[in-house]
Amino acid sequence: MTAARAHLTDGVGGPGGGEEAPRPFRQAVAALEAVRPRPEVRLDPLPAPRRLAPFAYALEASVESDGEEVADGRFVLLHDPDGQEAWRGTFRVVTLARAELEPEMAADPLLSEVTWSWLTGALQARGVAYAEAGGTVTRVSSHSFGELAGRAPRAELEIRASWTPREGAAGAAAGHLAAWCDLLCQCAGLPPEGGEGGSVVPLPQRRGPKPL
């Protein structure tokens, strides 16, 4: 992933952008670059945010099914060698995941709780330790009227979440990214890899491209 390494140089650094990335962060980025998600998921590097932490690395993801994009999101790994009080650690993962739903699913009163459980369940299933998890699950429904009344109702699910990787954060970075990709696929309504059913039924979605 040559482009990813370029963003490591251009998008990472201190206030002046010239600080060399410490070894734990470089190891974590190398682990992220080595992740190979399921075929429906595409990962691409993004310019890393500069104001959230001294060092950062970012990826964008899209999930395709039958030739159409059905979900998208962003995964950002932050690193502050001195740590941050709110993180209670030196690394922090910040994520965004979105998928379009059938409008009736957006009205499900349990949607938010179930979706959040998908995230925590994905992290547990991958066996990665984490703490200080927080986030929001937002569902938005839109109905058109007047001259636009012919448009079909639309609904979108959005999950913004962040958490602190625990012991061995650098080596476990790949597991955190893989867990987030699992969440993204579940939000997109894809069946588990291998075609085996699980205890949680994926939410159906209205498929269509959604710009970030």
Characterization of this structure:
By secondary structure, the chain is of the alpha+beta class. It has one domain. The protein is 27% helix and 34% strand. It contains 5 helices and 6 strands. It has helices at residues 2-10, 23-33, 103-106, 111-125, 169-187; strands at 41-46, 55-65, 68-84, 89-101, 130-142, 154-165. A hairpin with a 4-residue loop joins strand 3 (68-84) and strand 4 (89-101). Helix 2 packs parallel to helix 5 and helix 4 (111-125) packs antiparallel against helix 5.
Summarize the structure.
27% of the residues lie in helices and 34% in strands. It is built from 5 helices and 6 strands, in the order ααββββααββα.
Mean model confidence by pLDDT: 80
- Radius of gyration over alpha carbons? 18 Å
Return the structural class.
alpha+beta
Q: Work out the strand percent.
A: 25-35%
Q: What is the percent of helical residues?
A: 25-40%
Instruction: Catalogue the unreliable spans.
Output: 1-18, 195-212
Total tally of structural domains: 1
List the total number of helices: 5
Main sheet attributes: strand count, strand direction, barrel closure: 6 strands, antiparallel
Overall spatial form: elongated
Number of strands: 6
Order the strands across the largest sheet as they lie in space: 1-2-3-4-6-5
End-to-end separation: 22 Å
What's the SSE pattern? HHEEEEHHEEH
List the helices and strands and how they pair.
Layout (H helix, E strand, L loop, with lengths): L1 H9 L12 H11 L7 E6 L8 E11 L2 E17 L4 E13 L1 H4 L4 H15 L4 E13 L11 E12 L3 H19 L25
Antiparallel strand pairs: 1-2, 2-3, 3-4, 4-6, 5-6
Helix pairs in contact: 2-5, 4-5
